[in-house]
Amino acid sequence: TFIKTMETSNESSTTDFILLGFSQWPKLELIFSVLALFFYIVILVGNTTIILVSYLDPQLHTPMYFFLSNLSFLDLCYTNSIIPQMLVNLWNPKKSITYGGCVLQALIALDLGGTECLLLAVMAYDRYAAVCQPLHYTVIMHPQFCQKMVLTTWLGTLGCALIVSSLAFKLPRCGHRELDNFFCEVIDFVKTACVYSQVLEISFLALSVIFLLLPLSVILISYGVITHAVMRIKSASRWHKIFNTCGSHLTVVTLFFGTVISMYLKPQNNTTSRNGGKFIALIYTIVTPSLNPLIYSLRNKDVKNAVRKILWVKKWSAKPPHLHTPMYFFLSNLSFVDLCYTNSIVPQMLIYLWSPKKSTTYGGCMFQSYFSLEMGATECLLLAVMAYDRYAAVCQPLHYTVIMHPQLCQRMVVTSWLGGLGCALILCSLTLQLPRCGNRNIDNFFCEITDLFKMACIYSKIIEIVFSALSVIFLLLPLLLIFTSYGVITHAVMRIKSASRWRKILNTCGSHLTVVALFYGTLISVYLMPQKNSTSQNEGKFITLFYTIITPGLNPLIYSLRNKDVKNAVKKMLC
């Protein structure tokens, strides 16, 4: 069985590391956590926007924005490997991380840090080609060459990270478990070792030259040649355009390389310099990735115009692409719900499965139960909205565009999200008030609201009534709407004599019906059927696995395998 403990014990596994972080300033930890959360949100929103804008706007389909979208994706991966664990440690009095988790974090941080160094050098070469070879730019920076350079940056640093990490992890630690940092870095592993390794030092210096100083040299040479070329230009508008294009990249290079060099190539002999090193590490792990999208968007008219196009579009084009329809608008929202839902459950579940210790903080457990409840309720409403959309498409085909106009679609989606939010807030606020009387064991692999009810040592009639009412509103009523919609659709389909029309309707509605059957079938069996003995409780865990992991994994396959439009769109993107 999956057993999970809500409060951490005082004992720690001998394989765990202690991340000291900012524990010497306990009063500042709350401030650091708020700032880290703020920057994390900015990183997620800003870098995701850069990637989407670069993909959606044809004017940004150039080498410069191809490299920029790779840089944004890299920053997303880098910060996602560090900030969530950092926030957990700042909120939790116990600053522990498993040996496996620490090794993985150090490997990812080193790999992605090296990749960013090479990628910034590639971007500098791109700027050199654009400014100094404008007539031959499209020939020099052709798509295949750009893809090869990006692939080289990603694969090259992977080898570097594996070499250094494998040498560092072999060093004996002699019981040393404390890392004086807020995340696991390879240099922290080296400091905890009780022996000196000359081979590791030589490897580290050689790779620092290859992945730090050489890319910086390429950047400086590129901008030296650009400066020499710019000095001969007499046009003020041309000057202004060049400085706008190159200024953003130079600002990012200065921020990133300045902090990384001061951290990796400067000695830190005393406590003051080590504490200063933590703040420098904060800049290149959190501050710089959050500033990158701001720097590139604020100093770039193309990005700003593309963002305005996406944000301020009032209505769909008269001739929209094949997937710019209400059905795929709802499907994209469903996919986003599934992404959020699984990200709130699966990463923590994997940690429990890999670690002998199955603990989580009280705050973390409440957050997980709130998030899973909100996403689950939103998905129930969204599936009902999609059923209504199918009814309008099949039974009112001539009036479909009038009925399902963009404003109505947006309102229905917003209502679904706000409805799920309200459901989660009501139930979680009531659950927080229940006394637990020392109960700390949850018989599940993640924190679910029903498990928190079972932990309470008193019976609450109010919560039972509220839970039953919300189950009817967010589970049975949407299901009733779905049945009604498909009942009307079935009645309409029975009168159709065209075989091709039958096939088209069944293909369109079949995907949605399959998803509804999978999701509601498992959800109702867990929430609305009694589980009186240990056998039914164990079965409930496997059913929960189904709707938390398997169903979100099957949704894209169901919609793509049974839908020609999606398959054709994927083929276009891949080819």
Describe this protein with a few key phrases.
globular, 2% strand, single chain, 575 residues, membrane, three-stranded mixed sheet, receptor, two-stranded antiparallel sheet
Structure description:
The chain is mainly α. Helices cover 75% and strands 2% of the residues. It contains 21 helices and five strands. It has a three-stranded mixed beta sheet. It has a two-stranded antiparallel sheet with strand order 1-5. The chain starts with a strand and ends with a helix. The model is unreliable at 5-14 and 314-320 (pLDDT under 50).
Termini separation comes to: 46 Å
| DSSP strand count | 5
Tell me the β content: under 5%
Task: Tell me, rounded to a whole number, the average pLDDT.
Answer: 79
Main-sheet strand order equals 3-2-4
What letter string, H or E per element, gives the SSE order? EEHHHEHHHEHHHHHHHHHHEHHHHH
Shape: globular
Membrane topology: Multi-pass membrane protein
GO molecular function: G protein-coupled receptor activity; olfactory receptor activity
Family: Belongs to the G-protein coupled receptor 1 family.
Protein name: Olfactory receptor 2W1
Topology:
Elements: E1 4-5, E2 17-19, H1 26-56, H2 63-80, H3 83-91, E3 96-97, H4 99-132, H5 137-140, H6 143-169, E4 178-179, H7 186-192, H8 198-230, H9 236-264, H10 271-298, H11 301-312, H12 326-343, H13 346-354, H14 362-395, H15 400-403, H16 406-432, E5 441-442, H17 449-455, H18 461-493, H19 499-527, H20 534-561, H21 564-574
Parallel strand pairs: 2-4
Antiparallel strand pairs: 1-5, 2-3
Helix pairs in contact: 1-2, 1-3, 1-10, 1-11, 2-4, 2-10, 4-6, 4-8, 4-9, 6-7, 6-8, 8-9, 9-10, 12-14, 12-20, 14-16, 14-18, 14-19, 16-18, 18-19, 19-20
